[in-house]
Amino acid sequence: MITLADQLLVLVLLINFISLGTGRLIFAIRAVAVQGVILGILPGMIHSFSWHLVGITVVIIIVKGFIIPRLLGRAVHSAEIKREVEPFLGYVPTLLLGAIFTAFSFGFSGSLPMLPEHQNYMFVPASIATLMTGFLVLTTRRKAISQVIGYLILENGIFIFGLLLAGAMPVMVEAGALLDLLVGTFVMGIVMNQINREFSSLDTSLLTSLKEE
Amino acid sequence: MAQELFAPSTLIFSAILLAAFSGTPLLFSSARHAARAQLLSVILMILSSVSGVAGAVAFLINGHSTLFEISWSLPFGPVQLGVDSLSAWFLLPIFGITGCAALYARSYWHADHHPATVRPMTFFFGVMTASMGGVVLARDAISFLFAWEIMALAAFFLVSTENEKPEVREAGTLYMITTHTGTLGLFALFPLLHLLTGSWLFPPPLTLTASPGIPSVVFLAALFAFGLKAGIMPFHIWLPSAHANAPSHVSAAMSGVILKIGVYGLIRTLSFFHGVPLWWGGTVLLLGVVSGVIGVAFAIGQHDLKRLLAYHSIENIGIIFMGVGVALLGQTVGSEPMMLLGMAGALLHVINHALFKALLFLGAGSVIHATGTREIDLLGGVGKNLPLTALLFGIGSVAICGLPPLNGFVSELCIYLGLFHGIQGEGGGAVAVALAIPPLALIGALAVACFVKVYGIIFLGAPRSANHYGQHEAGWQMLVPMLLLGGGCLAIGLAPAGIAGLLQQVSRSVLPEVVGQAGVLLSRLVPLTALSATAVLLLTLSAVLWWWYRRLISGHSGSAPTWGCGYQRPVPRMQYTASSFAEMLIGLFAFALMPERHRTGNMKGLFPGPARLTSHVPEAVLERLYIPALQELYRRFSPIRKMQSGILQQYVLYSLITLIVLLAASYF
Fold this sequence. Notes:
The structure holds two protein chains of two kinds. Chain A contains seven helices and no strands.
């Protein structure tokens, strides 16, 4: 099972590169949805069966795989924006940076003091690499929707880290984290709507005009 | 069971709960029932006040310190709440004054006349009362900070009640900035205490040694944080505008009680330490002297009645600090009488100032309610139509000037006596107290001058403007609280022996014992019987004089304007104005006050044309010191502001860089 989990994690890493490298918003949203579904399956691979685990799996797959992508897709359609990412930094440089960060995270996680049973997993490097990818998307993309995608990837990274603790994590904490994510997406949806109405565009760099002098 | 139910601490905690929820019914009432809901809130506040004062008195008479511990899962350990003598003493003004102010608000800020603002105002008034109670009961840093911040925020919302006016918003903002600067001081203070004791709980009294190093920094942080709240010079900048722009009963509660919470904090912090060095007492005494003298000088220059009263608060806080300073110097030189007299004077002045300053603010509120202005120079002859308000304001004025037979005299006498005891010692302490006596006398004299001005211009003489002459006396809901406060002033003035025992007990609870002098009694140090006798004598004398005066004028009645001076056609404009009365004193203090004069027109020649002269005493410390300094700071640091570009992505980049640096740092 562990080898299967590792293979799934490799898939997660590949999806990171897809979301960094693609120019189409819809494609990026779908990629993140697939990533969410994979993350939903993962807990079942590494922990023994319990109803708690089933609950987590179902909720995560529904929220990350369907609800949030649906919300984002609707936002893209209704905002009638150009369905391109419009990065500050080109695709190739971001991909290169993503590769560097991934390598860095593998190197770094080797030096972390961890329990022996976690030593051989890819969880920690994958988690840090996904986190970094989220940050990269957040910093290099111009559109508000890409910002939401960045946050989702970032959250996925944190979630992977949490997988190691899933047995010890109380339901309340998980529910809270998922609720956070959902509310965050809603809030970003409202923000996007407002930006769109105010500036007739979803370009967050226009927000500089709100800065006080 | 009944004993449990009426235990002092039960009464106090229920008072806090009642106050906290007193404003809730009004929040959910419809516009039609707002007046009745307001009545319910007032009743709850009065219940809270009665229960709180009863609890505090019962505790002071025969309570022993109780400590309650709530264990919760937050970091920083358990919460401790407790009642001891010092807390109980400060609970007296907290619940006494706010109860009076709440009743006063029923008429002064009636729901039918102020439908938009009455809800938040009533709600936050209750919350402020409860949180002040929380501050004095807190026995650990975290619950103290919680209560402290709730208090500061509630007071902010109260100050900005009339937030449609720009000057009110400005006052609220200034208050907010300064109160949070003060909290910053507390954030320094409590971790340093933690370093000393290893716990977030307050240490028991006198368990820490006031050695140089961390204890000195603790002292300075406490002086800064609590001094800001108390309004000591030069940290008083928020006080005048906040007190002037809040509704009058809120000003009464703020000036009467919130400032005292600052004093409480300082006394509480100082009570942790023993063996204090000379410079602690010297600094507190010096701050007290500066604030007393400069505060009253600023007060003389004001044209706005409530601003003037606010500067008097600064003066009185100065007097309280002088008392605390004397007590600290007494600790250094090992003189029990100095410690006892200084601390007792300071603590009594806390109560006294709460009584008479609340009385004066409520009186000012009645005048404003009747005349519609707080400009002293527009008022005149108000006493003829508001005789009871005039009488009660007069009582407050005599009390604040520290004149017998009222309460202000008793507490100032304690501080004087403490200072005189200090001179008999030797070394730096004696020099410090010798230098402090003349300023205390000066403060008293200037306060008399200031209140002669206020009372004479507002209540006596002839009305100065047709719009503001005050047609109606205040309603009973406004008069009863003032009557209670005035009665309190008179009671302490007439029978100081009644509270001397309690005062001594509270003072001793925060002071170290001096070997061989433990038996000194407050009643031996202060001539309490002579005080009562003098007070009775003075009252009798004034009653006789009044009777003689009535007999003298009965039969020959005639009327002429005040200061008519036998002119053919005297007009109200011939009267002394507040500015002309204060002119000479302001000239003497011009070095500190920096008054501004604007003169237009030409006064030359035999037949000079029309001319105008206006004078104005600005808040010099704020306008000449803080604002220029902050502007300079702003200019110097403007390159850093480029970091705040407004680009979202850049902000996220900062987090990313931080993360990478931290991760990379773990390699090394």
